[in-house]
Amino acid sequence: MTKSTKTLHGAIALAGISALALTACTGPSGGGGTSTGSAGGGAITYGTTDKVVTLDPAGSYDGGSFMVMNQIYPFLLNYAPGTADAAPDIAESASFTSPTEFTVKLKPGLKFANGHTLDSSDVVFSFNRVMSINDPNGPASLLANMEKIEATDPDTVVFTLKAGNDQVFPGVLASNPGPIVDEEVFPADKIMDDDAIVAAKPFAGQYTIDSYKKNELVNFKPNPDYQGLLGEAANDGATLKHYADPNNLKLDVQQGNIDVAGRILTATDVADLESDSNVKVHKGPGGELRYMVFNFDTMPFGAKTPEADPAKALAVRQAIAHLVDRDVIASQVFKNTYTPVYSYVPKEFEGATEPLKSLYGDGSGKPSLEKAKQVLTDAGITSVVDVKLQYTDRYGTSAADEYALVKEQLEKSGLFTVDLKSTEWTTYTKERRRCLPRLPARLVPGLLRRRQLPHAVLHPRQLPGQPLREPGRDRRRQQAAGHHRQGRTERAAWPGPGSHRQGPLHPAPAPGCPGDGRRN
Amino acid sequence: MTTLIDAPPGDTGGILPAARKSSGGGLGQYILVRFLLIFPTIFILVTMVFFLMRITGDPITAAMGGRLPADQLQERIEAAGYDRPILVQYFEYLGQLATGNFGRTLTDNRAVVEMLTTYGSATLELSLNALVVALLVGIPLGMLAAHRRDKAPDAVLRVFAILCYATPVFFAGMLLKLTFSVWLGWLPVAGRAKTSSELALTSLEAPTGIYWLDALRSGNMAAFADVLAHAVLPAVALGLLTAGIFLRLVRTNVIGTLGRDYIEAGRSRGISEYRLVTKHAYKPALIPIITVMGLQIAVMLGGAVLTEKTFEWKGLGFQLANYLTARDFVAVQGIVVLLAIIVALTNFIVDIIAALIDPRVRY
């Protein structure tokens, strides 16, 4: 199929977690794809800038790795297409049998693609292995509430929890530590090499890996033995192609070399692609938030500054909150792929409200210079306040434009001068770790929210030609947020010595604190 | 180890007699000396790489310093032996290198040797392609510039040569991509092959990793054409860097050769100027090209980092950039050491070829 004859040439995910949901609108690959299709729906080629850290579930806690794992490993619980609740995948049943016991019964006759039997022993091995290896890149922190796991018979396992009534736990089982691995293949005490994993075929998910070149090309074939929640694959396979440069990703989907592009395209690219008749761009609401955070010690009038004054420090934060024009940032920098948000919880979530909208700015979401001046004057601040604003481009190249605009907005008020700096990600995380042993409070909570497609709205399996799934990652983020992590956020901070006050929604940061590379 | 001949061929300038006196040996001794010099060269390079990498601290802290609590970090540092005296680590590292053990990458837990072999072939392919472009562009245009000395074509070509080697390779790459991929749509944007071709080539038994070679071996001409199409822009971007140097070198040497007595003799016998240039003058002028080629391999490998990154050409340069970003110094160390070895070996080979062609270099 050539570019000119393709009606829906490709679907573009907005740099998002639900990228795979957007593959639905594509048909079999064209020139560059793996057009080896047959009656099953053909094969599809998906391009991404995500990277795989490792295929070993004990050694990764990142989107790129998990997306591949989701195709090849079975889970006790998973997300059915179009739903937001974790449901039994290879489990026959899974429920709390007491406040601190979660019992899972496996379906009978399960096996891995290499012929090995999949039973409760493998399940126990998988979770214990994640905990015992406790890799710094791994998801062991998600199992913090798991005291132990036991196999009561070949088909049944019982999780004993430290704290009872953990309603997040089913979601944890469907998330990063959840893949069930073959105990006859994986070593119990160390991470296994990707190529060795592929060679041993310890797969029991919807797909198996046919060929694998790490962070280059992964070819998936449907697994005929999969008995899980997601059912039989609706196609003949899929190819995952990794890109380093979003520009190449964008150009390749435009030229028909891949069918679907996702994670991560810039807002400018998305806007450009929207004008391309050969490409279909899907948008939807999402749960990603971008924040600015403050170091309470080193910020103006902070606790460890010579002019320490908590009331003045509060006034500075409030004044900035009054001045930031979220609408302008969303439209100018993010081309409306983000929307202003006035809450810690995106409004799409049930029960979410926008308490901050009336609290800051003019009360309707626009900035208010008068209120900013007033709050500073009331606190006794009469001179221009110098602030140091620091960002990292880890979360997209738009960060530079975003914070340049914040600087402009603050300085335009005449109330602030801003020293804007960027920091390379690794240095940023080191400084953050060094400087922020506890999480900082937020001043401008929920600055912007990414518009994204939730899985519940469009799940790939609801649409033809869809080979891959990335179930519930968005939901997991939200469900897990109060438990272990904050989703993908952008923050500005003042690295410096000292501790910081903790934000209202944040738990202890390490490991699993917001902004930690593993989480993103 | 590379001997660069700047003087026009035939102009010994009084050096040769002295060289002949001091040589005291033939080609065999020359090769032996050059071969033995490889080892201290590599040793020095390896030592430099090792200690430079340690300037910023141990590799574990560099790669994971921001993501681990201090106690766990220390645990890993101790487990890896990075808490020991630097000299102990250094000698252990030398011992490992001697046995071909480059360790495992910190960020993706791969054997460095496996990573080097996987991606080395891609870089080799790109370098070979670029070298072909450099030779095809640099030599003929250099001869043309010499032939049309101080005329308009010469002036244009000299400017072109300067542009070639003065333009950053990533910028040239982006311009080429913009022109031939985005605007004209003639050539692929990035990558080494289409997905279907890559799948076909990687499924071969014992692939070399050099795609065009694998495509030829398998008789898959569609894949071969596809691979060549993907190779054009990266090869041109990287090749032009060296082509500019070749062009100027050939021009200078051909001009020098054209003034020699034997050319004058040929001219007086009525041999055409075209024939004089293409048959009689260019051969001696090519000797410096061979010697410079050795140096250019190092330039090309450096340029390959940027070229591979620009064109998503997943070779050693591409990986080097990624590992540097991730501060995976074990991987970086492995790649840099391999590149150093390649450069040292290439220079050795070039020296041998130069000595075979021109006995005067065996001084």
UniProtKB/TrEMBL annotation, chain B:
The record's GO CC annotations read:
plasma membrane
Q: What is its main location?
A: membrane
Q: Which InterPro entries match?
A: BPD_transp_1_N (IPR045621), MetI-like (IPR000515), MetI-like_sf (IPR035906)
Q: Where is the ABC transmembrane type-1 domain positioned along the sequence?
A: 120-354
Q: Show the PROSITE patterns listed in the entry.
A: ABC_TM1
What subcellular locations does the record give? Cell membrane
Q: Does the keyword Ribosomal protein apply?
A: no
Give the membrane topology, semicolon-separated if more than one. Answer: Multi-pass membrane protein
Question: Which chain regions cross the lipid bilayer?
Answer: 31-53, 126-147, 159-186, 227-250, 285-306, 330-357
Supply one GO BP term: transmembrane transport
UniProt keyword terms in alphabetical order:
Cell membrane, Membrane, Transmembrane, Transmembrane helix, Transport
Q: Which family does it belong to?
A: Belongs to the binding-protein-dependent transport system permease family.
Identification of the protein by name: Dipeptide/oligopeptide/nickel ABC transporter permease
- Species this chain originates from: Arthrobacter nitrophenolicus
